[in-house]
From TrEMBL:
<comment type="similarity">
    <text>Belongs to the four-carbon acid sugar kinase family.</text>
</comment>
<feature type="domain" description="Four-carbon acid sugar kinase N-terminal">
    <location>
        <begin position="5"/>
        <end position="231"/>
    </location>
</feature>
<keyword id="KW-0547">Nucleotide-binding</keyword>
<dbReference type="GO" id="GO:0016301">
    <property type="term" value="F:kinase activity"/>
</dbReference>
<dbReference type="Pfam" id="PF07005">
    <property type="entry name" value="SBD_N"/>
</dbReference>
<dbReference type="GO" id="GO:0005524">
    <property type="term" value="F:ATP binding"/>
</dbReference>
<keyword id="KW-0119">Carbohydrate metabolism</keyword>
<feature type="domain" description="Four-carbon acid sugar kinase nucleotide binding">
    <location>
        <begin position="276"/>
        <end position="443"/>
    </location>
</feature>
<dbReference type="InterPro" id="IPR050007">
    <property type="entry name" value="OtnK"/>
</dbReference>
<comment type="function">
    <text>Catalyzes the ATP-dependent phosphorylation of 3-oxo-tetronate to 3-oxo-tetronate 4-phosphate.</text>
</comment>
<protein>
    <recommendedName>
        <fullName>3-oxo-tetronate kinase</fullName>
        <ecNumber>2.7.1.217</ecNumber>
    </recommendedName>
</protein>
<dbReference type="InterPro" id="IPR042213">
    <property type="entry name" value="NBD_C_sf"/>
</dbReference>
<dbReference type="Pfam" id="PF17042">
    <property type="entry name" value="NBD_C"/>
</dbReference>
<keyword id="KW-0067">ATP-binding</keyword>
<keyword id="KW-0418">Kinase</keyword>
<dbReference type="InterPro" id="IPR037051">
    <property type="entry name" value="4-carb_acid_sugar_kinase_N_sf"/>
</dbReference>
<dbReference type="InterPro" id="IPR031475">
    <property type="entry name" value="NBD_C"/>
</dbReference>
Length: 461
């Protein structure tokens, strides 16, 4: 059977974010960490496949090439609709990559029109008059203006996309979205006829996402955040509620087949064993979360100079420190590069922004791999790029998606037997947190959820 929805996500936390929302809307969803990871045959019961990439801030040409590869893999499985998932805060540079990738996908699919729908109201991301807000602030006045890699200095989605893509954009205003799916479809039709290439729908609450989902069930390419994924999935599953219930039940019974995700939490089992928190995000919320967690657990700030001077030797030191702190009775230790905007700017001036980001990400990947080799089985990671580096460092091919810790952040479990372990078939549990997601106590909340449910497998011998 063909996939109903195929998603290509430009970072790893974004991918688990949308996978979690597709699952919560009733879709049986599989997630893979590369196009090659997709097996030739997917189980018939799978509705949606998500491919996580790390294309948000690489060179536009590379992002386009990798995205087209992911598109081909999803289309080879007959995906009826494609979602290009990017950040709910439209993270991109002046050159892209949202514009170039959207244009390349449109061209490859023989299409000339799509929507840009980053809104995720449950997490405070709304769009009004085509401007993106983060809670009560326009995007360019929010913490995103200080992002280390993709600082956002404009809130107008129309201007942002027109600066990095080939066509013009129009806003579908609030009143139209409020009026329902037919009104939206008419407005899309009008926008297309006027020669626009992108439509930016105002979106103030989760009901608007359901309206948009219902209006977009025939659009071959949709771009945006996990919210529009949720809206679309709801529109699809609501029309086949009975069949879907049966499919999800079967997936639970068969468990690991084809990496099918589970859609409910009651029978989710966590992998037991030592845990660690790795934070490479310097977002406002992650800064608050790190502050909160430092009061609860052992915490080690990374010495950037040691990361740059002797990553291998320093990694060995950090591994020893983590292992000394890990015990069944205490919260997982935290290792963090998280810093204030002023500290980040100063470090970037000294070492170069890209070099520094790459070195820190590489360090986290190395650290995660070494910790896994020494028995760590549960990783809580903050930051999309950081999560990409860690997941790739761990050699993970795909995930099952489990209970949500916070909107957009589910616990996930690696597919078994994918990352050779001394003891064979152990899985790893990963919580990949987008920079600005979760409440201040997120790191503790993630572990609290684990302690409330059953665990399997002992990690360290
Ligand atoms: N102290 C620091 N100084 C400079 N750069 C840093 C520092 N700490 C982390 N970084 C880099 O900043 C980038 C943060 O990006 P990341 O995607 O991990 O977090 P985020 O952008 O907050 O999360 P998300 O993309 O999920 O919103 C990474 O490349 C990381 O290596
Ligand atoms: O959409 C979001 O905000 C997140 O899934 C994300 O992509 C952050 O990296």
């Amino acid at each position: 059977m063909a996939l109903r929805i195929g998603v290509l996500a430009d970072d790893f936390t974004g991918a688990t974010d949308i996978a979690g929302f597709l699952v919560s809307a009733g879709m049986t969803t599989v997630q893979f960490t590369s196009p090659e990871g997709l097996p030739e045959q997917l189980d018939d019961r799978v509705d949606a496949a998500v491919i996580s990439m790390k294309t948000r801030s690489i060179a536009p040409g590379d992002a386009v090439a990798q995205s087209l590869q992911a598109l081909n893999a999803l289309r080879a499985h007959g995906a009826e609709q494609i979602i290009f998932k990017y950040c709910s805060t439209f993270d991109s540079t002046g050159e892209g990559n949202i514009g170039p990738v959207t244009d390349a996908l449109l061209d490859a699919m023989g299409e000339t029109f799509t929507v840009l729908a980053p809104a995720l109201p449950v997490n405070g991301r709304t769009v009004y008059q085509g401007h993106l807000f983060v809670h009560d602030q326009p995007l360019d006045e929010s913490g995103m203006r200080d992002h280390p890699v993709t600082p956002m200095t404009d809130s107008s989605l129309v201007r942002l996309i027109q600066a990095q893509a080939q066509g013009s954009a129009v806003v579908i205003p609030y009143a139209t979205v409020q009026a329902g799916p037919e009104a939206v479809q008419q407005a899309l039709q009008d926008a297309r006829s006027s020669g626009a290439r992108y439509a930016v729908p105002d979106t103030l609450d989760m009901r608007h996402l359901e309206t948009l989902g219902a209006a977009l069930t025939d659009m071959p390419l949709i771009t945006g955040g996990s919210g529009i994924g949720y809206g679309l999935a709801r529109a699809v599953t609501q029309t086949r509620a009975v069949t879907q219930t049966r499919a999800v039940t079967q997936t639970r019974e068969t468990g690991q087949d084809a990496g099918a995700s589970r859609s409910a939490d009651a029978d989710w089992t966590f992998t037991s064993g030592p845990a660690v928190v790795l934070s490479g995000s310097s977002s406002q919320m992650t800064n608050a979360q790190v502050r909160d967690y430092r009061g609860r657990a052992a915490a080690l700030p990374l010495e950037i100079s040691s990361v740059l001077a002797d990553a291998e030797g320093y990694c060995t030191e950090v591994v020893s420190w983590v292992m000394e702190q890990q015990s069944a009775d205490t919260p997982a230790p935290l290792v963090y590069a998280t810093a204030s905007p002023e500290e980040v700017r100063a470090a970037q001036r000294e070492h170069g922004a890209q070099e520094l980001s790459a070195a820190i990400e590489k360090f986290f990947a190395r650290l995660a791999r070494a910790l896994r080799e020494h028995g760590t089985r549960r990783f809580i990671v903050a930051g999309g790029e950081t999560s990409g580096a860690v997941t790739q460092g761990l050699g993970v091919r795909g995930f099952e998606v489990g209970p949500q810790i916070a909107p957009g952040v589910p616990w996930t479990r690696t597919l078994p037997g994918e990352h050779p372990q001394p003891a064979g078939e152990e899985t790893l549990d990963l919580a990949l947190k987008s920079g600005n997601f979760g409440e201040e106590d997120f790191f503790a909340a993630a572990q609290q959820l684990v302690s409330q449910q059953p665990s399997t497998q002992e990690g360290r011998a």
